[in-house]
TrEMBL record:
Residue span, 2Fe-2S ferredoxin-type domain: 1-78
NCBIfam families: FeFe_hydrog_A, FeFe_hydrog_A6
Chief location category: membrane
Limits of the 4Fe-4S His(Cys)3-ligated-type domain: 78-117
Location(s) in or outside the cell: Membrane
This protein's name: Hydrogenase, Fe-only
Gene Ontology molecular function, alphabetical: 2 iron, 2 sulfur cluster binding; 4 iron, 4 sulfur cluster binding; ferredoxin hydrogenase activity; iron ion binding
Family stated for the protein in its record: Belongs to the complex I 75 kDa subunit family.
Gene Ontology cellular-component terms listed: membrane
SMART domains in alphabetical order: Fe_hyd_SSU (SM00902), NADH-G_4Fe-4S_3 (SM00929)
Amino acid sequence: TVKVFINGKQYEVPANSTVLEACNLAGVYVPTLCNHPRLEPTGACRVCVVEVEGSRNLQPACATKVADGMRIITRSERVERAVKFNLSLLLSRHPKDCMTCEVNGRCEFQDLIYRYNIKDIFGGEQPLSKVYDDSSPAIIRDLEKCIVCGRCVRACSELQGMDIYSMVDRGFESLPQTAFEMPVYDTDCIACGQCSVFCPVGAITENSQVRKVLEELEKHDKVLIVQTAPATRVALGEEFGLEPGSISTGKMVAALRRLGFDYVFDTNFAADLTIMEEGSEFLERLKNGGPFPMFTSCCPAWINMMEKLYPQFIPNVSSAKSPHQMLGAVVKTYFAKKINVDPKNIFLVSIMPCTAKKDDIIRPQHMINGVPAVDVVLTTRELAKLIKIKKIPFATLPDENYDDPLGESTGAGAIFGVTGGVMEAALRTAYELGLGKPLGKIEFESVRGLEGIKEATIDFNGKKLKVAVAHGGLNVRRLLDKIVAGEVYYDFVEIMACSGGCIGGGGQPKSLDKDVLVKRMKAIYTIDELSVIRKSHENPSIKKLYQEFLEHPLSHVAHETLHTTYMD
Ligand code: HC1
Ligand code: SF4
């Protein structure tokens, strides 16, 4: 540690801290905009400037390292004047249509403008960028709102390894642009939405369907069904002021009923169903000799990446649809029949931590007898918005349960929401179904945690299975490149395009908490631990669904309903 003085008071801070981290540790407020605790600092926006004794110029706190004995001033007239000037400049080239902005009320820039009482001193005469890109079903880029912080560029490159954007200078104005200024959907973009989660303003947002869902809820001329992903329940509360990692499953279900949905089903149920199919597929491949590695298929951003950049792996990816598609397919066949309603008159919404799922639902392979299996995907953020618009008092709602028959789930289904979870759930079931004997210990610790690439060797009745788990596009690409080069061999690989898996999805609440993924991850494992049943094949509702409709895993009807194909 080193000693620093902040506004005259002495603190001890880790020697490699930035001035910003030191101030945060000391509880001293420093405004930030381009900085994000999960991205490399750049000092671009100069909103975090401070005085450092011995330096002539103000220094960006995010990009300045502490030194022993450093004297830092965060509160002075000079600092205040600089912060206000920098904010005024940004505001002068920012539209003033906050009323209709997707992130109104949740905008880091708006908060600073309010806090520093910035008036539009330049009169908003600067020309605004005209880039409006709604080519993607996943995200919308409205670059007149861009404040050039570069967080989207860094998220897409540093975390996702996709490099879709770079800062292009156009006179005094730079913008995060795609190569040749192509519509983002025509690039290699995988629709993961990380750029939208890291955008502090409304320049990149999910392609919102809130109005569409409001309209359906108000018309209510169809049977309205909703399903919720494993990872939404451990993050939704953050939008209502709860700590990251708060589990709000029961309140979320209650809110969805108050919104007017007729049935609230659980994607976790379908995660159990996925394990039945995918686990059985893996056992088949073990019998038939491959192809290996088998890759998991539930992450649609990974599927986009695979089809665009690694099409040689098409035969390797499990043919199992993702859980929310399986649930959609079961709703529009089995359940429609059960309630005697034409599938055309069912409107199914998936609440997902993910923007790529918005892209996934329009794949032609996912049509069920001429209707889409899932009609609309809302992100966790959009659900929060809907709940707020409808003035539902989230924090004081009672805990309610999911509806039958597609609402019962196990701990194995729950852990789908975190990196390593699909692998662990699949191993729990493949082991017991394959070997016909109970697992001693059902936790597979070696595939847990937030390390980017995890490997394990599992003893499968004498056969040593090599498995790997990767999450976050950059790690995924590193692992795949090694597999392509023949440097490593695995039997089974789980891939999630976002860091942390779905808990860190592009549709999750934005967070400036650097430990947000750890907190959400812990919540997911708590749900597993508290579950009475923790293996997918022991889910009674799954057993019943096979008895009444699907016959057995990989049956003809299961293939027709629950499996898919890929294309390059
Ligand atoms: Fe996921 Fe999945 S776990 S992909 O990470 O397989 O989005 O939460 O819903 O479908 O179950 C996301 C989460 C989600 C699917 C499941
Ligand atoms: Fe990059 Fe993902 Fe944004 Fe596409 S959606 S530009 S891949 S961060």
